[in-house]
Amino acid sequence: MACMKLKAGPKSFNSFDCCRVVTIAIFMGILLFILCILTIEAYNDLPTIATKYSQMSHFPLPLISIQLTKQFNISCEFLFFDFFGNTGDICAKHVTQPIPNNSNGLWTGKFFPNGLSFPIHNQNGLKRILMKFFIIDNSIVDGDPPVFTINIFDSENATMADIMYNETTKNTYFKESSPFVTSIFRSNRYFLGRNYTHHVRMTRKVTKTIVGTFRDCFGFPETYDTLTYITTVNYVTTRNATYFKSAASGFMIDPHNFVIETQIEQRNKSALSVISNVLAVGGALLTLYVLLFGVSSIKPWGVMQKWFFKGVARDRLVKKLKLERSEPKIFSAGSRIDNDDEISLLKNELIELKEFLKYYVVNINWLEEGNGEDENGRIKKALTGLIENCKKLKELLR
């Protein structure tokens, strides 16, 4: 309201104002276009995979499922670094002998680790597991040897391991699961023919997949579904005469290394990234606008000054104006001042007023640039107008 009252006439809309409006419209269009593009990109963005490796202090024994169309028995031994006696009885406690499964027609046996693990240091502890199978039904047709189906699951995620084991007793093969879980199930499955012995070496992997939530769309920490699984490398070995010679088939299993590979899904773009990019572009356009047109408002406009400390700038201005409450001597009634004194007083008044306006309103040096009037006339005219406006401003602030 104060600014409006200080103006000499109605506001006119000139070519400069027209140029300013067109520029603002163009800048707003640019911001809207960028907002639409970034929003579409964020919506269609696919997560990337970050891979990191870390060392394990131990390698948990896997849950193992063994299947065959014929009835068979499982025998196993633990091989230790620092013990060379018979460990068959100890290992047998972890084995569930095969039972027939009517849903898929296979005999299914199980090895459950019960918390055992391979240690990283090879001075003591478990080194390897030896497992062999004996076929009870001897009516085997030559040329059609039975094939053992071996499934190896990471037991660290016990729930997932049990689900996968239970899946081996059916023919669905994770029919209702995601392709990724199904691929884990199948990558941990291999086949062992009769009279073959394999050396199975394991590595562990962890995959953390993002569970889509509303918070995730705004860049907050993601919620992950963690899947742990084992990958294996199988080596065909010669049959050990002392252990595997009498068995139909068998394998030995141990860790390939103690390095765990973790794959983590990461979302690259979110609503926060869109907002931050739009604000960055908006800041650049605002800077360009200020460089082109400057600022039109001389009142405090910052958030802190406008809302939280709105009285500080006003009180400071009023305090400064109180020092100038008396009317200048050159306008006092009955004053008699010669021309030299008048010019000197005008200069002092103008200097003080310039400093006041420079720090509290606006720097007015540019008003005097390009004016062809003589110095004394220019000073007198500028001072007269500024003092009158200052008086009106003081009256409004009282």
Structure summary, number of beta strands: 13
- The name of the CATH architecture of the largest domain is Sandwich
Number of helices: 11
**Arithmetic mean of pLDDT:** 76
Q: SSE order in H/E notation?
A: HHEEEEHEEEEEHHEEHEEHHHHH
Outline the biggest β-sheet. 6 strands, mixed
Low-confidence stretches: 1-11, 366-373
Q: How widely separated are the two ends?
A: 14 Å
Helical/strand content category: alpha+beta
Summarize the structure in words.
- The chain is α+β, with helices and mostly antiparallel strands and about 400 residues long.
- The chain has two domains: about 50-265, Acid-sensing ion channels like fold (Sandwich), CATH 2.60.470; about 300-398, no CATH class.
- Helices cover about 40% and strands about 30% of the residues.
- The protein is built from eleven helices and 13 strands.
- The protein has helices at about 1-5, 15-45, 90, 160-165, 180-185, 215, 270-295, 305-310, 310-320, 340-360, 375-395, and strands at about 50-55, 60, 65-70, 70-80, 95-100, 105-110, 115-120, 125-135, 145-155, 190-195, 195-210, 225-235, 250-265.
- Strands 1, 4, 8, 11, 12 and 13 form a six-stranded mixed sheet that branches. It has a five-stranded antiparallel sheet with strand order 5-6-3-9-10. The chain has a two-stranded antiparallel sheet with strand order 2-7.
- A hairpin with a 4-residue loop joins strand 5 (about 95-100) and strand 6.
- Helix 2 packs antiparallel against helix 7 (about 270-295).
- The longest helix has 30 residues, at about 15-45.
- Residues about 1-10 and about 365-375 have low confidence and may be disordered.
